[in-house]
Write a structure and sequence with these properties.
12 helices, mainly alpha, Arc Repressor Mutant, subunit A, Four Helix Bundle (Hemerythrin (Met), subunit A), 4% strand
């Protein structure tokens, strides 16, 4: 599911929901994924009723979800018009990536260092999710990619047992933008980069903390390049 940022009408290709259960949360998750992948563009105003029509739901859960995102500082209310996506400059994106590196690299290494028993079982349960990330990247399904990628990293970090780490990283990920993601997916580069998730699983199961820290440092470096908008159409993209 991808959007066309260059579409003058600002249309998005959105998932439809066939159940009314937890609509507010599900719509919010989908909108976060669209924000992270850069498909909902900075500075553009979006109408809740129009988004609701594309989701195939009423405007109420969409409006509620967008108010939740506004409370997180991801979008802002534009009176009588809708919601505008909050603009982030390159420096802020770099700061987010830097902070993720300072937290996630050592914490993931610690998970690998003690990966046995229930922790190892938790890591093994992440392998299907790692494969879903790669498959969605190969299929250019960026909404599923972003959702699965976030779930993978937060569940991995949760194995360390520090809820504050998970909360901080969740907030940083929600504020991120991956502006060059679509071109990387179309070129097959994103799927190759996504293989690093299975490498993380393998490193943890070997209890190889040094390898995990190396993989995570490289992974954050790749993400930082995309967040800052420096990777375009495969230029300067990491090789597999």
């Amino acid at each position: 599911m991808t959007a066309r940022p260059d579409d003058p009408n600002g249309s998005l290709v959105l998932p439809s929901f066939d159940s009314q259960a937890n609509l507010r949360q599900r719509v919010a998750e989908a909108l976060r994924a669209l924000l992270i992948t850069g498909q909902m563009r900075d500075g553009r105003v979006y109408s809740a009723p129009k988004l609701a029509a594309q989701f195939g739901v009423s405007a109420t859960p969409v409006r509620e979800a967008m108010l939740d995102l506004a409370g997180e500082g991801l979008i802002e209310v534009v009176r009588n018009k809708g919601f505008r996506v909050t603009e982030l400059d390159e420096q802020e994106l770099d700061h987010i990536a830097e902070l993720r590196g300072l937290i996630e690299v050592p914490v993931m290494g610690l998970v690998a260092d003690v990966c046995e028993g229930t922790i190892a079982a938790g890591v093994r349960r992440l392998r299907p999710l790692a494969r879903r990330i790669t498959e969605s990247a190969a299929a250019n399904d960026l909404v599923t990619y972003a959702e699965a990628d976030t779930e993978f990293h937060l569940r991995f970090l949760a194995l360390h047992g520090n809820d504050h780490v998970v909360s901080v990283v969740r907030t940083m990920r929600h504020r991120s933008r991956l502006y060059g993601l679509e071109s990387l997916a179309e070129g097959g580069i994103l799927a190759r980069m996504s293989d690093e998730h299975e490498q993380m699983v393998d490193a943890a199961l070997r209890r190889d903390g040094d390898a995990m820290r190396e993989i995570m440092a490289r992974h954050i470096g790749h993400v930082r390049s995309i967040w800052a908008g420096r990777t375009r159409s495969g230029q300067d993209a990491p090789s597999s």
